[in-house]
Amino acid sequence: MSDTRRRVKVYTLNEDRQWDDRGTGHVSSTYVERLKGMSLLVRAESDGSLLLESKINPNTAYQKQQDTLIVWSEAENYDLALSFQEKAGCDEIWEKICQVQGKDPSVEVTQDLIDESEEERFEEMPETSHLIDLPTCELNKLEEIADLVTSVLSSPIRREKLALALENEGYIKKLLQLFQVCENLENTEGLHHLYEIIRGILFLNKATLFEVMFSDECIMDVVGCLEYDPALAQPKRHREFLTKTAKFKEVIPITDSELRQKIHQTYRVQYIQDIILPTPSVFEENFLSTLTSFIFFNKVEIVSMLQEDEKFLSEVFAQLTDEATDDDKRRELVNFFKEFCAFSQTLQPQNRDAFFKTLAKLGILPALEIVMGMDDLQVRSAATDIFSYLVEFSPSMVREFVMQEAQQSDDDILLINVVIEQMICDTDPELGGAVQLMGLLRTLIDPENMLATANKTEKSEFLNFFYNHCMHVLTAPLLANTSEDKCEKDEIVGSNKSNTICPDNYQTAQLLALILELLTFCVEHHTYHIKNYIMNKDLLRRVLVLMNSKHTFLALCALRFMRRIIGLKDEFYNRYITKGNLFEPVINALLDNGTRYNLLNSAVIELFEFIRVEDIKSLTAHIVENFYKALESIEYVQTFKGLKTKYEQEKDRQNQKLNSVPSILRSNRFRRDARALEEDEEMWFNEDEEEEGEAVVPPGEKSKPEDDFPDSYEKFMETKKAKESEDKENLPKRSSSGGFKFTFSHSASAANGANSTNSKSVAAQTTPASSNGSSSKNTNLTTSVTATKGSLVGLVDYPDDEEEEEEEETSPRKRPRLGS
């Protein structure tokens, strides 16, 4: 099967008249008993499966095109093509086909195209068996010729006969001479007839006629005839456009005259198909299939010829990366490459492989890196398109290049960071370029398309690289727009919200949404890399600041990020969320949303419903203990009542277990294997302190060492007791928005230390009835439990349960959720 002569690519023509690649295999011609005849068989080279089994029918018209193509119609509207790697193989199979049909292999077409219904009529009417007699090519016969050409289009037989007659008599060239006469005489009627004739001849769909019409000497006259559409008051000026406006730019002079001619011809034929010819109706769309194939195979030839010219491509690269090249020249070089890559999509896969490997060898990636960092928007956009072809073709090739590059250069100039910066700095208000680049980044960091070989795994290597060298660039805008100092500024201005207000600029919001989409993808696919990153940077807290955005789509992106994290049901994440009190901004957003029944409302409720249905115990306990008062008034869904029920059931279960445990063992109740927990927590908290400890500590407490914790805790409890009597008299009032707010601050101990797992703070914002209403006082209603260092207290049966009940009386009244 390794015989390259018989190696073929099977194409079928789809409904859009485009050739679809059905696979590569090896062709043979053998007698197939089931089909009772000699047949063409193509077996896939990958697994030996049958790609094609087609009986060589004595009446089917097979066409041989461009030495390596055999094209035929299997049934109405089902065209097939075999594209051979070598001419010799094509000739061999062509001989077999001609042998079965009793034809001389020197012919280009084995049969006249005949459909069966016409075949019967054909036998009944012997007079039609002769070739069509064409009227003499004269001015006064143009109307007659036009009627003839348009009349045959509905009949496949007559179309075929007319095509043969036109070919035999060199008729097209005579018609084009008449066109010049008519134009000189300004004979409008004649020119209108010629439009109909030439358009009709194109619809005959014959490759042999196209070769005459699209030759250098004829094509401009053909375009000229097509300018005179009778439906138009004034003729179009297509020739003027093709000769004067459309400039053939040679970035590097092309010396091969055949190649130049092919490029000109392809451009002009494409122009005829796309611009001049009206969009074919349903009945006409099959008429131009050969024209589409003509362009398709021309493009294949152009790419192959350019690729084989090593000198040409290396010269293009040299100029592209040379600093001395001026901007206009560089723009043309990049546009040339973009078009070159677009043409390469027509190549067969093995040729496309060779094409991209040639580009990689010549240094396309380092060249792109330089070009993508340039100021010229056009150049950058074309470079992005080229980069997308490369990423689609082989993400591994791009990843390998980037990792090698990291060993020699700074993070700033790494290709991936250049791509991320382009994404962040996109000036388009709709961020079209950024969306495209984000898609490419996602492909590059998608573990699904990463290879695992015997000696190394691309996944772990590349992700280590990405998180060490690139992740900080990607998250920079997110961290900058949710930073602590922004929060302080907002409070100074006298904002009602105690949380950070995120930027209202629509473009920034769009960008942050894109970054969040990518981070959400990472949470789903990158397991421990992203987990460490989120913990070290306290990333979820920063993301949830965006729940305050006036752009609901951005708030939803932030919520989706948290939902993905909770969806993993990973206790590591769950402890991080409960210790950081990270449900607070979500619940604030739900309460702020009021009685509006919208996507935000549904999404938040779905998050809690997921926790209830999946019975995530640690989160259920956290939500019920900290937020149930604020949520119990929400009765239009049973979610929160359901969470409370689950919580109470679990509490009862734990109590029963407790009662069966001897009292001496109770101090260590309800905990996981202590060693496993300590190792996990040690690993995380140690990393925190080394790398980004401050990320988790609110600004006011950054300076305090951990050891001060017990003292500050005692002071806190004293002031709390002192205030309790005052608080009982002075109940918190509603905030301006009508809801009770929790402040988005959490004690450093709760966020950071293993000392107090269950410390929780629910703060209700109260507004003194002062005239300006700008100052706001936060009354903290907090219960904290100190645990013996190193042991973990269970979530129920607190020693100070009674105290908690007393406090519940003083907590804010629940906010009615539905408007009365």
UniProtKB/TrEMBL annotation:
It comes from the Eukaryota. Residues 701-732 have a biased composition (Basic and acidic residues). This is Protein phosphatase 4 regulatory subunit 3B. GO terms for cellular component: nucleoplasm; protein phosphatase 4 complex. GO terms for biological process: DNA damage response; regulation of double-strand break repair. The gene is PPP4R3B. Belongs to the SMEK family. Residues 681-820 are annotated as: Disordered. Residues 745-761 have a biased composition (Low complexity). Residues 5-101 form the PP4R3 EVH1-like domain.
